[in-house]
Specification:
Residues 8-39, 194-206, 216-237, 248-261 have a biased composition (Low complexity). This protein has helices at residues 14-20, 25-30, 89-101, 129-139, 159-165, 168-234, 291-299, 325-335, and strands at 49-53, 64-71, 78-85, 107-111, 121-126, 143-144, 147-148, 150-153, 279-283, 305-310, 318-322, 339-341, 344-345, 347-350. It is built from 8 helices and 14 strands.
């Protein structure tokens, strides 16, 4: 049966196959095909079997209509009916390899499979090692169907030579063990990949949730800050018994006299009139050892809280820091004159700058 192909049509005649299916390596070199560009590992011990990779998996085949005669059930006579024949690409590949490598010696077997693990690979089994060595040297990097072949000696013995040498049973047993080990390693690798993909997806989900929570927290802080700023614009200073509201006449409700500073009698601004600061100054605190924890519990309930700092060697005072002066002002207003102990009413003011 004749088969028409676009590149290398194999026929029943080996000599004809060699001339039609694959041009000679010398012609490939003349056509500019790569011969020494691809580095090949020739470390395996020379053997009569060659291992080939980088084979073209997608050989384009033409479809040929033929006439086949089937009996006509109605007239009991033969009538020509058109039939379509497809040539399997693996069969074409084997025939082309046999035609090409058959020029260097007797080829006993061509082993090629279409499964995923062996795709694009093949084994060419020669009668002797000399033929295999000659073929490897001359066909290396030959572009079969447009792809340069990568050839090296096979690391394992072929079934044909194992049967000839009389150790096929042991050879077959070792091959099954190797195949089982490869399958187990492949399954383990797949499990590890699935586990890593699952862990990565979980980490991405946790990161997404964290970002959403952080964004929600920032939005809440911005909303509270905007609300507080709006309240401060409407009433910048809250009324206080010790000093008049903002805009009140001078001297109304204010102390009768301002204390003088230590240097040159410069008047010192009372704590109640200090400008805003992100740091608050606390006075009249109890001297118990648990006062710091109590202050943290009190002030951290207000947004923007950063830390409480006690003053070493000085009892009864402390500092509380917030992110900005708006947050500190809100905490100051809420906790001013807070009864922190039976005999201690906490005094909260802005710290001096």
């Amino acid at each position: 049966m004749d088969v028409v192909m676009t590149q290398a049509p194999p026929t029943e005649d080996t000599t004809a196959d060699a001339s039609t299916s694959a041009p000679a390596p010398a012609a490939a070199a003349a056509a500019g095909a790569p011969t020494t560009d691809m580095a090949v590992d020739n470390t395996p011990v020379p053997s009569p079997t060659l291992y080939i990779k980088n084979l073209n998996e997608k050989i384009k085949l033409d479809v040929i209509p033929h006439h086949h005669y089937f009996p006509d059930s109605l007239t009991n006579s033969a009538s020509p009916l058109p039939a379509i024949y497809f040539y399997n690409h693996l069969v074409v590949l084997k025939k082309s390899l046999k035609a090409l490598f058959g020029q260097y010696g007797q080829v006993l077997e061509i082993v090629a499979h279409s499964n995923i693990r062996m795709r694009g690979q093949a084994f060419v089994v020669f009668e002797d090692q000399e033929s295999a060595s000659k073929a490897l040297a001359e066909v290396q990097s030959f572009p079969l169907y447009g792809k340069p072949m990568v050839i090296q000696f096979s690391k394992s013995k072929s079934d044909v030579h194992a049967k000839k040498d009389g150790d096929f049973d042991e050879h077959h047993k070792q091959r099954l063990l190797t195949k089982e080990k490869f399958a187990n390693d492949f399954k383990h690798k797949k499990r590890q990949q699935k586990l890593q993909a699952k862990q990565q997806a979980l980490a991405q989900e946790q990161q997404r949730l964290h970002e959403e929570q952080h964004a929600a927290h920032l939005a809440q802080q911005q909303q509270q800050q905007a609300l507080f700023a709006q309240q401060q614009q409407q009433n910048p200073y809250h009324p206080h018994p010790q000093y008049p509201p903002y805009g009140a006449p001078a001297g109304a409700g204010a102390p009768s006299s301002l204390p003088s500073g230590a240097a040159g009698g410069v008047p010192m601004v009372p704590d109640e009139y200090l400008p805003r600061n992100s740091i608050l100054f606390l006075q009249n605190l109890p001297q118990e050892s648990t006062v710091e924890a109590q202050l943290v519990s009190l002030f951290q309930q207000y947004p923007g809280f950063k830390e409480v700092r006690m003053v070493p060697g000085k009892k009864g005072i402390a500092f509380v820091e917030y992110d900005n002066e708006y947050y500190s002002a809100a905490a100051k207003t809420a906790l001013a004159d807070y009864q922190i102990g039976p005999e201690h009413k906490m005094k909260v003011t802005f710290a001096r700058k």
